Amino acid sequence: MVDFPDEVIEHVFNYMNSHRDRNNLSLVCKNWYRLERFSRKSVLIRNCYSISPERVIERFPRLRSLTLKGKPHLVDFNFVPYGWGGFVYPWIDALVNSEVELEELRLKRMVVTDESLKLISCSFVNFVSLVLVRCEGFTTHGLAAIAANCRFLKDLDLRESKVDDHMGQWLSFFPDCCTSLVTLKFACLKGSVNLAALERLVARSPNLRSLRLNGNVPLDALKKILMQAPQLVDLGTGSFVHDPYSQAFAGLRNIISKCKSITKISGFFNVLPYCLSAIYPICMNLTCLNLCHAARIPSNSLIKLISRCAKLHRLWIMDWIGDKGLEAVASTCKDLQELRVYASFHVIENDLAGVSEEGLVAISIGCRKLHSLLYTCRQMTNAVLITVAKNCPNFICFRLRILNPKKPDPTTMQPFDEGFGAIVQSCRKLKRLTLSGQLTDQVFLYIGMYCEQLETLSVAFAGESSDGMMYVLNGCQKLRKLDIRNSPFGNSALLMDMERYETMQSLWMSSCNVSIGACKILAKKMPSLNVEIINGNQQPVRSADDEQRVNKMYLYRTLVGKRKDAPEFVMTL
Amino acid sequence: MAKTPEPKRTISLKPCDGDVIEVSPMIAKQMQTIQSFIEDDSFIATTTIIPLPNVTAFQLSKIIDYLNYHSNSKAVADNVKESTKKFDEEFLKELEHDKLKELLHAANYLNVKEVLDFLCQAVADLIQDKSVKFVRKFFGVVNDYSVEEEEDIRRTHAWAFEGVEED
């Protein structure tokens, strides 16, 4: 058969959007490489130090949408010192210099300066989407520039970013005409908000679907906003305090009941438990509920709320829901797919607060569609993990955090090897696993044996010898990210199969038994890897003797060699 | 629709392997390649037979079926979405890989946007999540990379342009 002309091939390419598929297309032959190269609009870089911006632009000169990730994810738990790196400015600068007509930018865990935001706002004429997840380094001045200059802006999402909030006025910088805004999420901002500007902005944004307010937007303002925007689908409520007997409160309930399209709800900063009843009228429609920012709500108020939310797919909640609350979730939310239970601080003070193995077993019986779990509990048992493995074999993500991570099973005083062993043996689709509790090398033997699909493994305070890590590296062929803290894995495990790290995205080891000498051997043998030694106390790393134990080591593969922006406390071997 | 008596004005298309097929001007107009004939001289277009040496009778009738179904369903309301989906699925079910590719060639030759869009989407769905080998075989493309070149690109993809999904 005759070959298809290039325009037909390109036409097919237009319908191929996944990054993996696009990568595959360019491997078919040299002509397809060329066609794919010039038609690729969306590029994803998982580690901003794995390649240079110039090389990305050279390869995909017509890119419109860029996703970039910076710091290792352990920065979320303060394990990566402040100032490590992950700066976006060089990328923006290169894109501007190459006259790339960028329209979408998604950044995760990167340092974004106001200078970067200003450069974005005045360089990319058709810029529509800015998503900054857990980023830092910028202020509301930078946001004001985006608001003022990006005339076609659709999405501004600052999810969990740390923003220096100098000015509640930034919302008034949006143009006076109708905006194209679809998403506006600023729940992470700490400062006050110009409420009049916010209300005016919502009124002239007819396409707005997602709006997440911060804790300084009071209920009265929310009422006015909801009256103007009953089309919202995703609402972050802002503050949620009111006198429940007032007329104003009755009005709110009435207004919320008209917002029939809301399916996702979050926020509830400073909520008073009885105010939650205002959202009862729309509970039946909710698929996603996030109560992580809600100030402490007693379990019985949560139960009243959740027992109305039968359609939930995703629930994020603090552990003060208690085991009784999780039982209510289990009996109501039959379609639940993702559950996250985070710890609050009071648990440490009070042994009986929070959630335990009982809540988890109830969930595993009631929510058979559950495939993603993050569970922070004060206590767990092997017997329950074995039951959970039997009830929910579809886990893709299983993250268990026991608050005292070194404790054995309190009923048998045994380590948790058999419990996690049951999970990995039963859940064959598992891609992400976080271990917790007392564990011996045995658990790693199970993981190596059964976790064929595992991509991300997080380990802390576990194992007995280097054997544990070796079992994992030998067994889990699809492993891409491995984070290990405070575990006795040493040089022999690190150096066992050095080429293995070329198949992985990154390896983090902190407070393990790895020496500087071993890291040097690794770096010398594998020039394609950046082996970073990070000094946790932010003092410059001195080239001490090779026997010295490494405080933190972060290893990743790169196509462009050592990074040049490392601070003094980072030494790249 | 009201039926008004009208002189028969159809366009005669002659596929390479069968008898002449008559189509309405409305359908013919969606075939850019035919439209140029009609625009040039609508009298000739309705009186002479337009030969299509690159299109078989099977392909031509498939394309006409598709256009007929979709132009009729457009006239009706939105609630035909389901049945349209069903028609599209049935349409593709009858096509083996080779037939699908030949039809895509024919649609490209006739330059029928609606059918081209539909078939390109169908091909994209077919090769989605498939290996490079499968894609090469499907399109009959010969790999002109050396082993080293291919490895180099694979490495660049894996190291820079791919990674694990997570929150």
TrEMBL record, chain A:
Which keywords does this Swiss-Prot/TrEMBL entry list? Auxin signaling pathway, Developmental protein, Nucleus, Ubl conjugation pathway
Which pathway features in its UniProt record?
Protein modification; protein ubiquitination
Gene Ontology terms, cellular component aspect? nucleus; SCF ubiquitin ligase complex
Main localization, broad class: nucleus
Q: Which GO terms describe its molecular function?
A: auxin binding
Provide the GO biological process annotations: auxin-activated signaling pathway; pollen maturation; SCF-dependent proteasomal ubiquitin-dependent protein catabolic process
Query: Where in the cell is the protein located?
Result: Nucleus
Q: What is the designated name of this protein?
A: F-box domain-containing protein
Species source reads Lupinus luteus
From TrEMBL, chain B:
Q: Could you list this entry's UniProt keywords, alphabetically sorted.
A: Ubl conjugation pathway
Looking at the record, the residues that make up the SKP1 component POZ domain are 10-72
Tell me which Gene3D superfamilies the record gives: Potassium Channel Kv1.1, Chain A
SUPFAM superfamilies attached to this UniProt entry: POZ domain, Skp1 dimerisation domain-like
UniProt xrefs under SMART domains: Skp1
* SKP1 component dimerisation domain boundaries: 114-160
The pathway is: Protein modification; protein ubiquitination
For the biological process aspect of GO, one term held by this record is: jasmonic acid mediated signaling pathway
* Database matches in InterPro entries: SKP1, SKP1-like, SKP1-like_dim_sf, SKP1/BTB/POZ_sf, Skp1_comp_dimer, Skp1_comp_POZ
Q: Do you know which Pfam families this protein is assigned to?
A: Skp1 (PF01466), Skp1_POZ (PF03931)
Q: How does it assemble?
A: Part of a SCF (SKP1-cullin-F-box) protein ligase complex.
Q: Which family does it belong to?
A: Belongs to the SKP1 family.
Record's function text: Involved in ubiquitination and subsequent proteasomal degradation of target proteins. Together with CUL1, RBX1 and a F-box protein, it forms a SCF E3 ubiquitin ligase complex. The functional specificity of this complex depends on the type of F-box protein. In the SCF complex, it serves as an adapter that links the F-box protein to CUL1.
Q: What name is this protein filed under?
A: SKP1-like protein
In which organism is this protein found?
A: Lupinus luteus (European yellow lupine)
List the top taxonomic levels of the source.
Eukaryota, Viridiplantae, Streptophyta, Embryophyta, Tracheophyta
